[in-house]
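PT: before anyone asks, these are the final sequences, not the draft ones from last week. 866 residues across everything. Please model them as a single complex and drop the result in this thread when it's through.
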Amino acid sequence: MIHLLVQDLTVGYQDQRVVDGVSLNVSQGSIFGIIGPNGSGKTTLFKCISGLLKPWSGSMFLGNEDIRSMPKKRLARKAAFIPQVHSVSFPFSVEEYVLMGRYPHRGRMMPFTHEDREVVQETLETLDLADVRHKRIQRLSGGEMQRVFLACGLAQKPEILLMDEPTTHLDIGHQIRLLDLVKDLSRTKGLTVLVTLHELNLACLYCTSLALLDHGRIHSQGTPEEVITRENIEHVYRTRVEVGKDPISMKPHIFFMPGLKDN
Amino acid sequence: MSRTSSFLILFFLLTCALAFGVFMGGSELPAGAIIDALIHPWQQGTIHTLIWELRIPRIIRAVIVGASLAVCGVAFQAVLRNPLAEPYTLGVSAGGALGATIAIMLGLSGLPMVGLCFTGCLMSIGAVIIMSTFRDFSTTTIILCGVVLSFLLSSVVMFIFTIATSREVHASVLWIMGSLGSVDTLSTPVLLLTVFPLILLLSLFARDMNLISLGDEKAHLLGFSPGVLKAVLLGLASLLTGVCVAVSGIIGFVGLIIPHAMRRAFGAEHQVLLFASMLAGSTFLLLCDTLSQIIIRPYELPVGVITGIAGGVFFLLYLLKASPPEVI
Amino acid sequence: MIMVISSLFLIIPSDSYSRDQLPQRVVSLAPNITREIYDLGAEGLLIGVTSYTPDMAGSTKEMVGSPARINIEKTYSLRPQLVLASTDCNSKSDVEALKKLGCRIHVFNGCESFPCMCATFKDLGAMLGRSQQAGEVLNKVRAEMERIQAKIRVQKQLKVFWQLGENPFVSANDATFSGELIRRAGCINIFGDAPMHYPRVNAEEVIKRNPDVIVVVNQMDSGSGHSVWDRFDTIKAVNDKRVYEISANLVCQPTPVMYLKGYKAVLALLYPGML
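LR: through. Structure below.
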């Protein structure tokens, strides 16, 4: 079942077109990865789907609803967007920050309910943050902070989770742990995940579907096996690679070839 | 230290400040007579008049203005996402100073002057909001417009100074230095009536302040409209600042230090922060005002001098303590 | 080349004159000095005045700026033989600038007392060759003052609160112009002993010191009848309805003639019917 449908989306900044006629089918419960080189429009696409940027043309549907005409709060209850850059200028504690994920569910003047507190508790435990709940965010390590941002998103109890480059600034250990967690949530709770990733091999390991962006256009879309081919990667990333199979996961694996020039 | 005990301490300090203010004022009065006047408010006499018509209204004003300025400071720091922001960053004070200077040139005083000051404040914040909307309503734009307007209005004030008599200049400067000592009957009730709903409204936006302090994007993603939010919060906070400035001139530092100090003690959650700042702001300003009255009794120092020195010392100590910065 | 350079260094001073010769071209940089020149009947010598001078000078004399900010070039271009300034309202830098350009400039010290004003007036008269007129004016003023003093001696001494500002309340101590005025009126200034000239005073202290009369100095030319003190009827002044407003213009002019005028105005409030 298609959870998120993007049709012919075009968007850009001022007079520069960055995303050009992109269409995506994201199935319920899948982990859909968007990959592509720097400047291919991944973050812009992401911002547009989350409502931060107005599309120039095209449409986006979450379930049967048009995202553009959805009231913001309703969208926030169904979809959690976790952007790449977070600025935290003030000393919120982990628990306070995660609790903000419940805002879309409560009116301005309505106090938090028992359910809200439970959701926060559950989220903190799932993400192994219960011990640092009272710590101020700025005092956390990079890995912990990333988990806090994710926790805030999960506290929204969304149907779909959208993450923009969640593994940047994380070491391999943290990267794996985070993605394992996401995969687990997707499996156990049926959470649909749309994630933009830099690391191609990680994308192969975790994503059920991929879309490869090139200069704002979809170069190819499908399963990792379909998308990760030598021709595709070489064409889009302009570097020589070999594509093989990861012997452990049996997923496609890209081998880099440093030193060889493009011919 | 738990939050509850911190709050208890704040309440205790406020009570002490109130007692300090009642027993120490502009003139030396025997403690026994003061207590007598407090217990029997309906009696007549010089001391009764002093306590009930002068001292207590002044204490009330200090408490209200202190709480308001602190709350405004919290709001401004949240919207502008900057712990160094304060209620006068956007030029509200310059507008008030212009209004006051014009009032003095016209020979007005009392309520008409208050009205003119307030109008000045309103116009300056209106100008900032309109100017910012013409470009984009981003935080940087708002701050820039505010700073520019502040300079502009200050220049106009200085221009007026050059054509005014030295008496008028002196009177304007005195007003600008701030004073809680106005004696007219209307200022305290007017203050109460206007401040109370404004503070209430601002408190309702505590969650919004949490979000907006994390950025426009975060607010957006959790279902809020940052543009509208910023305008509303700035508007309310500026109104509140304007009321305070119109009644008591420009009293600095309260709106800067108190939110800062309270954030260190209570964290950034705005529901808690607002309430703590109200208490601390009242206590601080009340203490400073009482000190301004007793240091060279029976003559007064401008309360802004005391808040400035106290604020400066506090800040120095805070900086020297070399704890990890709260700001990224 | 040398000619050019040396001519640059040559600042031609305004027409100098010997001490025997009296100045025919005078510029006054202070409104009170301007007034005094008119009192001396020497306005014919005046070629330049500042703003805030009374209407008598306005249309016919050249304007050289405001007392706090003199237009140096304009002043110099008038080629005055004598420039008169006061430490009260003129800035030191303006005076120095004119001195550097070679203008002959005399700076009078600001006066806070009547004897000082009279001395200044006398010196000014001598400077402009009007010693006789100066003497006449001073005699007249002094005689009038003495006449009034005699009448005051029999009056009851009053406690006066001299209010110069409202929020905050500002008063004047004995060492000021206003303070001297009150003393000459035979009254007691309740804040006369303040350590600073213009103290900010607390309202409580005013009530405590219970003045017989309150004089509010402001822009009004006539009282509105109401003041912030109205509800504090424990104050004798309020109870007796002796809270007056008086225009700042009347009581802040440091010339002998104006002092007398202001003095009489204040006395009219303090002791109605006496004069």
